[in-house]
């Protein structure tokens, strides 16, 4: 028998703009991502680690030089972290080594670069991580409801931080070095008028009775601005994860896979061996001919829609053009979602072991059924 040695230092993984060293082992992941880039807006891994990303405004302009995107760091954290804290450590280590920067939009006319914030959770703990360039601060969440949005949220409670965070703030003249250090006050833009607490306010009012349905309803809330649907900007996808502290129960992850959760179905996914892949929610791959990979970038915009996305475009036309048919279609969609929620609740409350064969096709079947309803 031949013996092969894997030298990880010789292997690289290509992210959106740059390549980084690969590691000996990566975890199985389920992610929701913009079709043109490598990283993810949100996702989960086989160990019950979940990460979500948000662009944040800070007083330090984000770098336009191509490096790691915040979304690349989401995916790398999920692939390499077996716990929330491990994922956080992965992200800040890569941030220190490679930095963050580059265009977050598939746009050849201008560069839209951002700093990043993350919500990182597992069955046992949760962290909020916020970054400014290579500098960062993190808080371990121990109670209540936490959200991330386009403004910095960490203040004086920081459970971990970049070792040079405070000296850097002093060098920029943003902090005198005296008094209590308030991360948000130091690093937020001087004129920060963003108001993005609608989701948090809504959940805090229901804190004692939050369910999966509560979370889905919140993500669908257009009146508060949590859900946005317009030609210039829209909520591209949504996800809700249930992470039981009882280790015998599986983590269940609900993904829409399509824009605007008010007209999308949250479909359940469970990590098991031999899970069935779902090509109908995978955008076309253009390989090295992808305009996002060739320089100068974004000279063309190929059709990146997957089959479920195209079905939803048809559904949107129906919902907007025919009131009666639209109501029936929406009712059918929500009934399908309700059936999925009820089936998952039975799994969570069951005392018996999970049969992988019963859930390996779960997400695939939900997507297939959803498309059939639209047709």
UniProtKB/TrEMBL annotation:
Residues 283-304 are annotated as: Disordered. InterPro entries: Peptidase_C69. One of its GO terms (biological process) is proteolysis. GO terms for molecular function: cysteine-type exopeptidase activity; dipeptidase activity. Residues 290-304 have a biased composition (Basic and acidic residues). It comes from the Eukaryota. Belongs to the peptidase C69 family. Secernin subfamily. This is Secernin 1. It comes from Macaca mulatta (Rhesus macaque). The lineage of its organism: Eukaryota, Metazoa, Chordata, Craniata, Vertebrata.
């Amino acid at each position: 028998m031949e013996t092969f040695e894997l030298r990880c230092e010789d292997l690289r993984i290509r992210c959106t703009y740059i390549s980084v060293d690969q590691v000996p082992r990566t975890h199985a992941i389920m992610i929701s991502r913009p079709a043109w880039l490598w990283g993810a807006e949100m996702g989960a891994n086989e160990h019950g680690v979940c990460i979500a990303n948000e662009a944040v405004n800070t007083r330090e302009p984000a770098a336009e030089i191509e490096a790691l995107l915040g979304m690349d760091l989401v995916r790398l954290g999920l692939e390499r972290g077996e716990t929330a804290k491990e994922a956080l450590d992965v992200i800040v280590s890569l941030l220190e080594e490679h930095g963050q920067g580059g265009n977050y939009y598939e746009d050849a006319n201008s560069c839209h670069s951002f700093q990043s914030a993350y919500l990182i959770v597992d069955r046992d703990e949760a962290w909020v991580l916020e970054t400014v360039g290579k500098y960062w601060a993190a808080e371990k969440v121990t109670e209540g409801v936490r959200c991330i949005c386009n403004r910095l949220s960490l203040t004086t409670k920081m459970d971990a931080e970049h070792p040079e965070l405070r000296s850097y703030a002093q060098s920029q003249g943003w902090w005198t070095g005296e008094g209590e250090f308030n991360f948000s006050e130091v690093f937020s833009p001087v004129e920060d008028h963003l108001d993005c607490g609608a989701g948090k306010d809504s959940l805090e009012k229901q804190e004692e009775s939050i369910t999966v349905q509560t979370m889905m309803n919140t993500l669908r809330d257009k009146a508060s601005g949590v859900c946005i649907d317009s030609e210039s900007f829209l909520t591209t996808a949504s996800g809700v994860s249930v992470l039981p502290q009882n280790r015998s129960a599986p983590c269940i992850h609900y993904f829409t896979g399509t824009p605007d959760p008010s007209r999308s179905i949250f479909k359940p996914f469970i990590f098991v061996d031999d899970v069935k892949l779902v090509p109908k929610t995978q955008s076309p791959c253009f390989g090295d001919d992808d305009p996002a990979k060739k320089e100068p970038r974004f000279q063309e915009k190929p059709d990146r829609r997957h089959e479920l996305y195209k079905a939803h475009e048809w559904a949107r036309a129906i919902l907007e053009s025919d009131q009666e048919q639209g109501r029936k279609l929406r009712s059918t969609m929500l009934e399908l979602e309700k059936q999925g929620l009820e089936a998952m609740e039975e799994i969570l409350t069951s005392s018996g072991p999970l049969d992988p064969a019963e859930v390996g096709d779960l997400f695939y079947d939900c997507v297939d059924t959803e498309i059939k309803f639209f047709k």
